[in-house]
Write a structure and sequence with these properties.
It contains 7 helices and 8 strands; from the N terminus they run αβββααααβααββββ. The chain is an alpha/beta fold.
């Protein structure tokens, strides 16, 4: 009898353990299912937000192109990176235009300017010189490796099945393929460099602040004073001031460019947001005033135009300000 009681106690204990394990497994499965459902909901929400906001951001690109064609100074938008805002389709639209003549051209910039650019975004001189040598080895036509550069052998040693193109960069996205250029470094360079300047120099009246701060031998005080004067002249419809100091091995150019990078963001009152970026070039044909060289939908990041505190109020459509 006693053995029977002990047996029942043991079996009931085992059953209790099994029940507890089943409950634990069901809890884990329920939590996993709930997590997957939340992820699916987030994916659907993100797709919905992009599908609703992207057309409005695209409208911002086309509206900016229209403003670049205006001959009336009161209607024409500046191409120095100024941020414009207007209401359209129930969303706030912010647009920024950069004349590519104000950026540093990857295919033509001298070594000194590229090295300075790398240093101003946080690299030491030796590291910066290495990256610049790799960039120049990518764009030059020969197979001779610069001191700190990279030709086909270095790419193979690093495990890549390709080497440098030995031709000019066709897009700035090619920088991602250059040996040693990380995603973080590329994101820092992307708003500063171009392949559409076709010049060894820059037009400082159209340059983003980050480009001006990359110029060798120019103090922050000089840049800040210049930016203030440039903004004041633009508001008063006056020509931009000349850059106050010469920069070694760098030519300053003047005049309106023909190629522009445009970024447009649409944001709804509930926080939904979409971003579209494009590079457009003035065309010779009167029937097609602009041709599109690049077009990309993006997610809003730390460089969102809605992080800018200084904006110019524009107008567009029936719902505009």
């Amino acid at each position: 009898m006693r053995n029977l009681v002990d047996f029942r106690h043991r079996t009931s204990g085992i059953a209790l353990v099994l029940v507890l394990w089943v409950l634990v497994m069901l809890t884990v499965m329920a939590a996993s299912f709930s997590l997957n459902m939340r992820r699916e909901i987030d994916l659907v929400r993100n797709a919905r937000e992009r599908s609703m906001g992207a057309p409005l951001a695209e409208a911002g690109i086309y509206y900016a192109a229209n403003r670049l064609l205006q001959t009336d100074p009161q209607k024409q938008w500046r191409s120095d990176g100024s941020v414009y805002e207007f209401l359209f389709g129930g969303a706030r639209i912010r647009v920024s235009i950069h004349d590519e003549a104000g950026k540093i051209d990857l295919n033509n910039a001298p070594d000194t300017l590229l090295i300075s650019l790398m240093q101003r975004i946080g690299l030491e001189h030796e590291e910066a010189a290495g990256f610049v040598d790799a960039i120049i080895d990518w764009r030059d036509a020969d197979d001779f490796r610069r001191v700190n550069g990279a030709e086909k052998g270095e790419y193979q040693d690093a495990g890549f099945d390709y080497g440098p193109r030995n031709q000019p960069f066709q897009t700035i996205q090619e920088l991602r393929l250059v040996l040693g250029i990380s995603g973080g470094l590329y994101r820092k360079l992307e708003p500063i460099v171009t392949v559409y300047n076709d010049s060894r120099g820059i037009d400082p009246s159209k340059s983003p602040e980050k480009v001006l701060r990359a110029l060798p031998g120019v103090t922050d005080e000089i840049i800040e004073t210049y930016l203030e004067e440039r903004a004041a002249n633009a508001l008063n419809k006056l020509p931009p001031p000349p850059f106050p100091v010469p920069v070694q091995n760098l030519e300053f150019t003047q005049g309106s460019g023909t190629t522009f990078s445009v970024s447009a963001e649409a944001r709804f009152p509930d926080g939904r947001q979409a971003v579209v970026a494009a590079v457009i070039r003035k065309a010779i044909s009167t029937q097609t005033p602009f041709e599109f060289l690049e077009w990309e939908s993006r997610f809003a990041g730390d460089d969102s135009l809605f992080g800018e505190s200084v904006v110019v109020v524009g107008q567009a459509g029936k719902d505009s300000l």
